[in-house]
Amino acid sequence: MLLSIVTPCYNESGNIAELHRQLSAVADRLDMDVEFVFVDDGSRDNTLVLLKEVAQRDPRARVLSLSRNFGHQAALTAGIQHAAGDAVVVMDADLQHPPELILDFVARWREGYDLVYAYREGVKPRLGYRLINALMKITVPAESADFRLMDRKMVDAFCRMPERARFIRGMIAWLGFKQIGVGYTDRQRFAGQRSYTLRQTARMALYAVLAFSSIPLRAAAVLGLATLGLGLLYAAYILYAWFAGHTIQGWTAQTMTILILGGVQLVCLGVIAEYIGRIFEEVKHRPLYVVREWIGPPRTPAGTAHATRDRQPVAAGDVSGEW
After folding, report:
1. DSSP string over 28-57
2. Fewer CB atoms < 10 Å away: N or C end of the chain?
3. pTM value?
4. pLDDT digits (tens, 9 = 90+) for 24-71
């Protein structure tokens, strides 16, 4: 049995040594083979140099170097597609995810669960989770993190999902399978600063809604109907005033009506444009990521048995799992 531990890294030079030390301590306590798959997502510091040094010292370590910064979700996908384990653990490199929790993951996996995910204990579900779950057709576990174990059959199913605008937590929830959560307490970063900005978080929330829900389109239609209804009511009022002999003076009402109608039209067009933008990105079929260098022994294609490991991955990542 082989366990793959996938860790995307972006400007994490201060964490690499301690991350490897803690992962090695966990691997030594497991009665199975372990491989570490580190994905360098175009780091600007010496993260890649340190990862190569780790790979030279530890035969369990593999390093996947991407040609530039493709983003956390793409790097996470690249690591999963290059992992050969019977089970795959994904976690961040900042050590906010406690590596010792992997022991609990493996125990639950051996009990028959296909997905074991970590969630923050004692934390009130944030507004973002409640809003996303209200809009999407699937349910993402509240306060769940990108720290989970997936069985090989779930990894194979994930590698067959081709979309580019990725919200991996939602994709995992969509897959289903038998799953269970394990609570943990979030820790402080070991070193460095958080690289995920508020803007990136907002964009991820937008991707989540657009990828898994058509409610915004329906809301635009409802808003248009409501505006039409108000317009008809206003027209009825004008006719009533005309027949009653009343005089309507001033441009205030007309100006207000024009502004409301214009605003509603622009909002509806904006919602439609966001969906068209997603379609535009998908139909180009560009690779989700590009591999510059692979450090480690040859691997088998993602989605196949790992008993024979005699093929090298291609230079360009393909979200379908092809190598």
Report:
1. HTSSSEEEEEEEE-S-SSSHHHHHHHHHHH
2. N
3. 0.68
4. 999 999 989 999 999 998 888 898 999 999 988 989 999 999 988 888
